[in-house]
Structure to design on (226 residues):
């Protein structure tokens, strides 16, 4: 099945060039000029990857990125004329996976698209069914589903990955740095606060989940025997 890419760019010249290069590589591309249009696409049929401009009319790219990250970890490549370091950090902290400054080489963008899609495919469900049980927490790896106290919990891909790491080795204390690399990848450019934010979201979704803070270090999932 052809991979589906959402392109959000209000400059028609850039939009047409990027769309052309992506289609030439065999991708199915839906190009729009506003984040509102992109959100409609996301709700109906979420693309496998987003190429997202930041400065858009109406809802900006930052807000769109935040909304997507509430329910999905689909790759987002930000393209922006903002080239200050603080702009890049904000974009990545809000959930962007990559940041490309305008003007950029369309070939470089295509290369980054391929790399992120490859990683996204690896993170998708495997054929073999595997379950991890850790007290009241149960994970189904093949279906990427999480259950807590018998109730299914809606989790994003990164939330699931973090739970899997902690549940697979109960009572082991993982550092923030290790969790950051294992969940986001070793080329992630951002603060380890992303780990804290992920844990905060999981605690909100599962009030009594026994994820313990190891002060000055990281987190562990308390096993029943402790």
């Amino acid at each position: 099945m052809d991979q589906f890419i959402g392109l959000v760019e209000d400059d028609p010249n850039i939009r047409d060039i990027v769309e052309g290069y992506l289609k030439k590589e065999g991708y199915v591309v839906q190009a729009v000029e506003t984040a509102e249009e992109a959100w409609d696409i996301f709700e109906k049929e979420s693309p496998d990857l987003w190429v997202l401009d930041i400065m858009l009319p109406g809802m900006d790219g930052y807000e769109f990125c935040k909304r997507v990250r509430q329910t999905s970890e689909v790759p987002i490549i930000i393209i922006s004329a903002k080239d200050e370091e603080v702009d890049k950090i904000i974009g990545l902290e809000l959930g962007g996976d990559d940041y490309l400054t305008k003007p950029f080489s369309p070939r470089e963008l295509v290369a980054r698209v391929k790399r992120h899609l490859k990683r996204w495919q690896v993170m998708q469900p495997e054929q073999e069914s595997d379950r991890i049980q850790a007290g009241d927490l149960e994970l189904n790896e093949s279906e990427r589903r999480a259950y807590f106290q018998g109730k299914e919990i809606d989790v994003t891909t990164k939330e699931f990955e973090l739970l899997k790491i902690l549940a697979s080795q109960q009572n082991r204390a993982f550092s923030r740095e290790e969790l950051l690399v294992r969940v986001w990848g070793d080329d992630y450019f951002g603060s380890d606060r992303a780990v804290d934010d992920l844990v905060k979201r999981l605690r909100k979704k599962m009030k009594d989940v026994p994820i313990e803070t190891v002060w000055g270090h990281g987190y562990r999932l308390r096993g029943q025997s402790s």
Summary: The first strand starts at residue 4 and ends at 8. The two ends are 47 Å apart (CA to CA). The chain has two domains: 4-123, 131-221. The CA atoms of residues 54 and 62 lie 6 Å apart.
